[in-house]
Write a structure and sequence with these properties.
Layout (H helix, E strand, L loop, with lengths): L1 E9 L13 H13 L2 H8 L3 H15 L4 E4 L2 E4 L1 H28 L4 E7 L1 H6 L1 H11 L3 E7 L2 H9 L5 E5 L8 E10 L18 H4 L4 E4 L4 H12 L6 E5 L2 H7 L1
Parallel strand pairs: 4-5, 4-6, 8-9
Antiparallel strand pairs: 1-6, 1-7, 2-3
Helix pairs in contact: 1-2, 1-3, 1-4, 2-3
């Protein structure tokens, strides 16, 4: 039985969004006000006049059309809308920090940055040699490589956590993603030396289904391949143990 590894990238359609202009300094000040629970404390920490901080918060509320702070006798606290703004402000600040880090690499001569999510099978078999060859040809491109099961690879690229993913074929790819074959590997049957199937050079999958199976987690593409093959034969997949890696699977046989 063979399974096909594929790679894909996420294609985004153009979207029209309402235009809201944000002042990053104001967002930073707003976050400081919420953190300190006080406009005056945030103003002192930021070396800005209290009146200037108050005006920035008022202007931000006017821009968003929502009250962001409850003014209390002793300090302030965020409204539900303010908590939402605080959450997104933290995300924006983190993104800016990441942008600064990435651009510093360009300043050092780096000309590209690719984030990859890949499944374990591709790391073990194919990617090391391919990435070594790629790095020799394009030494100025940085590759961030993280391992995940095939389902997580697909969702990670869909959510923008990676630019390219490598996964085992057989899983549904969401609309808007572009997938194409990368490499092909083979699934092997491992049995104890004294097992009656060990003497065979070829084992039909129907015979395997008579046995209890040690395999990978349900979320893995390898499990999906086996499960689909069993369903095609109208047979149940007797998965006794579900593990996260091939080494653990081999040790449990």
């Amino acid at each position: 039985m063979s399974s096909e590894a594929s790679w894909f990238r996420w294609g985004r359609e153009n979207l029209t969004m309402p235009s809201i202009r944000f002042d990053l300094t104001t967002l930073s000040i707003f976050a400081a006000v919420v953190r300190d629970g006080s406009i005056s404390a945030a103003a002192e920490r930021s070396n800005i006049a209290v009146s200037a901080v108050s005006k920035r918060i008022s202007d931000l509320e006017a821009t968003l059309g929502a009250q962001l702070l409850h003014r209390l006798p002793r300090g302030v606290e965020p409204t539900p809308a303010g908590s939402a703004v605080l959450h997104h402000a933290a995300t924006i600040m983190h993104t800016l920090e990441q942008l600064e880090s990435d651009l510093s690499e360009y300043a050092k001569g780096l000309k590209g940055h690719v984030r990859m999510l890949v499944n374990m099978s591709s790391i073990v078999q194919f990617l090391p040699e391919d990435l070594k060859a790629f790095s020799r040809e394009y030494p100025d491109i940085k590759i961030d490589l993280r391992e995940a099961n095939s389902s997580e690879v697909i969702s990670g690229v869909e959510q923008g956590k990676a630019d390219i993913g490598v996964f085992t074929g057989g899983l549904d790819v969401p609309h808007g993603m572009h997938a194409q074959p990368y490499r092909q590997d083979r699934l092997a049957l491992i049995v104890p030396r004294d097992h009656y199937l060990a003497e065979r050079s070829h084992v039909p999958f129907a015979d395997v289904l008579n046995e209890d199976i040690v395999g990978l987690d349900v979320g893995s593409a390898s499990y999906a391949v086996l499960d689909n093959a069993a369903k095609a034969l109208g047979r149940p997949l007797r998965l006794r143990y579900r593990l996260s890696g091939f080494d653990a699977v081999c040790r449990m046989v």
